[in-house]
């Protein structure tokens, strides 16, 4: 690998607006989905960020 190569990583978190866009729903529904997923993660003892959800967990739970 040379110094000029850029490695693009998957973002660790997805915002509610990105969730809404991916699923074709309103922003309000995007926030509801993020909250639901974050509540599930909290029950597992994970730390969450309001308005964002782990991209890994999102893709596990949502069939796109």
Query: Can you count the helices?
Result: 3
- Characterize the largest beta sheet: strand count, sense, and whether it forms a barrel: 2 strands, antiparallel
DSSP strand count: 2
Strand % is: 5-15%
Order of helices and strands: EHHEH
Radius of gyration: 14 Å
Q: Note the gap between the termini.
A: 33 Å
Weakly predicted, low-confidence segments: none
Shape from CA axes?
A: globular
Classification by helices and strands: mainly alpha
User: What is the domain tally?
Assistant: 1
In spatial order, strands of the major sheet run: 1-2
> What is the residue-averaged pLDDT?
91
Helix content: 40-55%
Q: Could you characterize the architecture of this molecule?
A:
- By secondary structure, this protein is mainly alpha-helical.
- It has one domain.
- The chain contains three helices and two strands, in the order βααβα.
- It has a two-stranded antiparallel sheet.
- The longest helix is centred in the middle third of the chain and has 17 residues.
- It is globular.
- 14% of the residues are buried.
- The model has no long low-confidence stretch (mean pLDDT 91).
- It comes from Caloramator quimbayensis.
- This is HTH domain-containing protein.
Write the SSE topology.
Elements lengths: L12 E3 H8 L3 H17 L8 E3 H7 L3
Antiparallel strand pairs: 1-2
In short:
This protein is mainly alpha-helical. It has helices at residues 16-23, 27-43, 55-61; strands at 13-15, 52-54. The protein is globular.
List the defining traits of the structure above.
64 residues, globular, 3 helices, two-stranded antiparallel ribbon, mainly alpha, 50% helix
